[in-house]
Amino acid sequence: EVQIVESGGGLVQAGGSLRLSCIVSGLRFDAYAIGWFRQSPGKEREGVSCVIASDGSTNYADSVKGRFTISSDNAKNTVYLQMNSLKPEDTAVYYCTASGPLARRCRGDFWGQGTQVTVSS
Questions:
Q1: Is 53 left (phi over 0), alpha (psi -120 to 50) or beta?
Q2: Contacts of 108 (CB under 8 A, 6+ apart)
Q3: What are the CA-CA distances from residue 18 to residues 2, 13, 73, 79, 101 (Å)?
Q4: How far apart are CA 114 and CA 121, in angstroms?
Q5: Which of 13, 56, 99, 120 has the highest CB neighbour count under 10 A?
Q6: What is the pLDDT of residues 96-116, one digit of tens each?
């Protein structure tokens, strides 16, 4: 059974930082694309960032480029999303997803429960 558990969300002031963690079990971690989506009320779900665990390649939404950094620790089956210079518009529920095996993009085959990130102005 695939399990995805996110943590690290919370309330932060604009300009602050948070680090989200995503632990994935039940699949061969290094064969999957692991990524983050987010959704806030009244807005469409948005792909935030994705990492290909096998080779470390990454991509980002334009809205977070230069502020967010995704990384993976294959030994711990964990992906991190370091979020700096947070803005109120980053407020959303952030979901970790796994896609694959051998996926080259994050399409969301498996989903976690989500973690709330709230950025106050």
A1: alpha
A2: 35, 37, 97, 99
A3: 26, 10, 18, 14, 29
A4: 23
A5: 99
A6: 999 999 999 999 999 999 999
Q: Count the residues in the chain.
A: 121
Strand partners for 59: 50
Amino acid identity for residue 63 in this structure:
S
Query: 10 and 26 in contact (C-beta within 8 Å)?
Result: no
According to DSSP, the β-strands at 115-120 and 10-13 are parallel
Which parts of the chain sit beneath pLDDT 70? none
Residue 39, burial from CB neighbour count under 10 angstroms (0-12, 13-18, 19+) = middle
